[in-house]
Specification:
The chain folds into two domains: 97 residues, Orthogonal Bundle (Helix Hairpins); 102 residues, Iron/manganese superoxide dismutase, C-terminal domain (minor pseudopilin epsh fold, 3-Layer(bab) Sandwich), CATH 3.55.40. It is built from nine helices and three strands; from the N terminus they run ααααααβββααα. The chain has a three-stranded antiparallel β-sheet with strand order 2-1-3. Helix 2 packs antiparallel against helix 4, helix 5 crosses helix 6 and helix 6 packs antiparallel against helix 8.
Length: 216
């Protein structure tokens, strides 16, 4: 298993106390598209806060000895455990988002993922338009995903707040964070510009392709 998928699987099988995963690159690695200040603040403050809160919430609960993936799945439909789900899901969502980007990323992918994008959306340009439009249309905070549907090929989906595809059994290939703290310091309220930049300069298509064959 490659390093990024191995790290993701390692996180999924981690039990409390959970630790903040390291970024797969330096804080300034994605500049100028995402500044060092944005990435450092996002990781050390927001991502870290979800980890800290999750540890507090599960410490004396029935989930104290369960791994992150099981916690997410078992709390997804539970009203009483909504806070646990929100924080557990955001720990995973952020790790997936970090791997969805790389320095000198973006642009047209190659290989199987490129063929599947063309089959599903008509062309890479059409995919980009739909991905950006979906992300812009998402009301409030959330995530925009490229997913693999076992029956329909690739699709684009948005989720609100902390929601994620794991809870519904769908396979995530790539994601962009739509919470304002992901882009506001660099793009203010220009979510569309952030998403266009994500696809042009940051998207990690190698990671997306590897997720095609990733087992749950």
């Amino acid at each position: 298993m490659t390093e990024d998928l191995a790290e993701l699987k390692k996180l999924e099988h981690q039990t409390a106390p959970f630790a903040l995963p390291e970024l797969p690159y330096a804080y300034d690695a994605l500049a100028p598209h995402i500044s060092k200040d944005t990435l450092e603040f996002h990781h050390r403050k927001h991502h870290a806060a979800y980890v800290e809160k999750l540890n507090k919430l599960v410490a004396e609960s029935e989930y104290a000895k369960k791994n992150l993936k099981d916690i997410i799945i078992e709390t997804a439909e539970s009203a009483k455990d909504k806070k646990i789900f929100n924080n557990a899901a955001q720990v995973w969502n952020h790790e997936f988002f970090w791997f969805s980007m790389r320095a000198d990323g973006g642009g047209k992918p190659t290989g199987k993922i490129a063929d599947m994008i063309n089959d599903a959306f008509g062309s890479y340009d059409d995919f980009c338009t739909k991905f950006v439009d979906k992300g812009v249309e998402q009301f409030g905070s959330g995530w925009v995903w490229l997913i693999a549907d076992k029956d329909k090929g690739l699709a684009i989906k948005t989720t609100g707040n902390a929601d994620l595809l794991m809870a519904s059994g769908e396979k995530a290939l790539l994601t962009a964070d739509l919470w304002e703290h992901a882009y506001y310091l660099d793009y203010q309220n220009r979510r569309k510009d952030f998403l266009v930049t994500f696809l042009k300069h940051l998207a990690n298509w190698d990671f997306a392709e590897k997720n095609l064959s990733r087992r749950s």
